[in-house]
Amino acid sequence: MKLDVEQVRSMFPALQSKGDTTPPVYLDSAAQSLIVQASLNAVVQFETSRANVHRGMYPLAEQATGAYENARRTVQPFLHAAHPQEIVFTKNGTEGTNLVAQSWGRANLQADDAVVLSILEHHSNVVPWLQLKREKGIRLEWIDCDKQGNLGQEQYRQALQKKNVKLVTLTGQSNVLGVRPPLKKMIQLAHEAGAITAVDAAQLVVHYPIDVQNLDCDFLTFSGHKIYGPTGIGVLYGKRAHLETMPPFLGGGSMIQWVEREDFTTTDIPTKFEAGTPPTAQAVGLAAALQWLTQYRWEDIERHEQRLFRHAQDILSAIKGVQILSPATASGCLSFTLDGIHPHDVAEILSQRGVCMRAGHHCAQPLHDHLGIPGSVRLSIGIYNTEAEIDCVAPALKHAIHLFSKS
Ligand code: ALA
Description:
Elements: H1 5-10, E1 25-26, H2 37-48, H3 59-79, E2 87-90, H4 93-108, E3 114-118, H5 127-136, E4 139-143, H6 153-161, E5 165-171, H7 183-192, E6 196-200, H8 212-215, E7 219-223, E8 234-238, H9 240-245, E9 256-259, E10 264-266, H10 280-293, H11 298-317, E11 322-324, E12 333-338, H12 343-352, E13 355-356, E14 358-360, H13 365-371, E15 376-380, H14 387-391, H15 393-406
Parallel strand pairs: 1-13, 3-4, 3-5, 5-6, 6-7
Antiparallel strand pairs: 2-8, 7-8, 9-10, 11-12, 12-15, 14-15
Helix pairs in contact: 2-10, 3-10, 4-5, 12-15
The structure holds alanine.
């Protein structure tokens, strides 16, 4: 389908005027995208005639199970996974990373084994490994970036040569700088060094087509609430061979085959990792969002979003006192600081003008430490944004500069 931005906007309830209320200028899609009507409809429809999945024998329960498993079969081709069993539903991307750390990591990592990760990582791909460092004494090998956000490839090669490197975990796209590490090459090098790989695709997945078989990553995670779907749903992709040998993460209903007083056996993948009643309506809503998004061509989405990114860059670079952190090659989000003004004050002034943007460390404190700043302001883009919305940022920033020049 042709990407007509006005038509796209008409499909997002949050962008419709209600009475005298004008919709916000929403430039915080990296934190959470708005939900598309098709996804909302799917959630409501499921909840309206819902039943628990994988349990009841009656028609309503069978329909619910069918809807849930169809959602899995929608995610599978979206990621180009080889089998639907390689798709595990979680509550968000963070839970997926924790599942890898707590299940694969606990079973496979010993004291002095190393996990290689980049300085671009979000806390959700840092803290689970720091927890294993505390618990088991694993080592973390950090790969730094230069001022343009490029990861040090020589440092990476050297890290891979160190002893006992078992896992490389990388973001597909930084949630601060918007840079994309050369994933395919880095995954290949990790495999050559005998390590397996995990990708945090929370930011990438909404902007760029993902093919897990082509990337050859062992694990990949993302969240539904950043891809025009509902909150409370995420996906962990794992290669079948890994998932089959990994112990369960959470225990409870659905994930067992047999339970006795002293022991239990587990079901097969993927339900082994889906203890309890799953986020069913959310999975169905995510599938509807993916079906909606993939009506459009990725080339058209990328062209539109790149145009917005360049526009933001032009506008911001023309304002004296703005220091842009994201390089010209970045995508999806653009972070910056304003000389002498705290990022939270900037976001507050933007908010007074109806512009929603995030400020702070964006759950990426190690990166901000590396850049030598406490925080930044981030403008992030979704498929529904327009150049006119980005134009609203400049007057607000000039107002902030004016206010603070007097204080
Ligand atoms: N991970 C989200 C962000 O970057 C919350 O803002």
